[in-house]
Amino acid sequence: MTTTGKQRLRNVVFGVILFLAASLLGERGEAQDSCADDLSGLKNISFRTSSLKCIQAWSTYNYILRYSTDTSTNVVSIVLSTLNDGSWHGIGFSRNGAMVPSSAMVGWSASGRPFIKEYYLQGQSPDLVQPDANMLKIQGSPNAFVQNGALYLTFQVQLDQLSAHLIYAIGPQNFIPRSDYKLQQHRDYTASAVDFATGAVSTVSTGSLKRNHGAVNIVGWGILVPFGAITARYFRQFDPTWFYLHIAFQATGYIFAIAGVALGTSLTHKVPGVHFHRHRGIGIFVFVVASLQMLALVLRPNKEAKLRRYWNWYHHFMGSLAIFLAIVNIYYGLHIANAGDHWRVGYGIVLAIILIVVLILEAVYWYKWFKQPPLQPYPRHPQFQMQSFT
Question: What domain of life does the UniProt record list for this protein's source (predicted)?
């Protein structure tokens, strides 16, 4: 091949690369809808779009809410756009901000065909989320379409009150409803209050509350309290230092537990009716047990009392149970909060370190026990004195 031919070939390859890069970048840019975009050229919307107001409803998933209101009939015309990412997307209408009960318009795209359905949420399980319940006063025919990589849901609804609680939700990744139109539980959601008459918007943000609630419980129940139990189990030879360290760890952990309960309660009140009953029930039980354990400071029997042995058994068993359930509840909370892998893996590493320390100390404990001279009195069977006080 001549030098001129090689130069031409390089130019062609370079031009193809530039074209592909420009196409990809352009495609990526087009997939992002914004309030600055004009919808007047879209023929898939059955109502006028020139007077639509626009709200960036949920920046995390690029939820853009456009609407116009007929105050004489309370009919609101809505265009909701978001990423077409292989998940279902929904906007719910609630009387008081609760997800249950509420009605929602949900849309998705499957094999290039867009869908939109009305759902009524009677409960949190998929069987209690009913399609085509006709609880919303839908005017005309709702429509869904995909434009420039964005999914659009358009519909008109007549509301009893123009001040509405809206709940935005996104479904699991790579899941779309099948022919039965059953939904799987959302992977994330947010809420806001919108006055469709005045345009006032009040956004409910729970992200920081979730993070703080998880962080204080991980530090308190996942780290401090287990170390307090380790101190009581393996360091009794350093009397009374072990006792004061045990008190310090457990009391500090209990303070973190109180903060965790307060943040969890605040999180529940932020979006009324959105509850995770199992997570909350385990948390309440663990906190009650922790409160009873803290009463040991003033209510434990004297060393000479006959009841002291039974009290020690109770104290050990309930403390162990509380720590076990707390760790289980931490991971369950990370699951239902859709926390990233960095949370689960990060605490998993911390938990693994604690378990390795416990195994090493337990091995040393039993090694010393078997190495005792045979003529010494038979030692009392070691008790796993979690959170035990003398």
Answer: Eukaryota
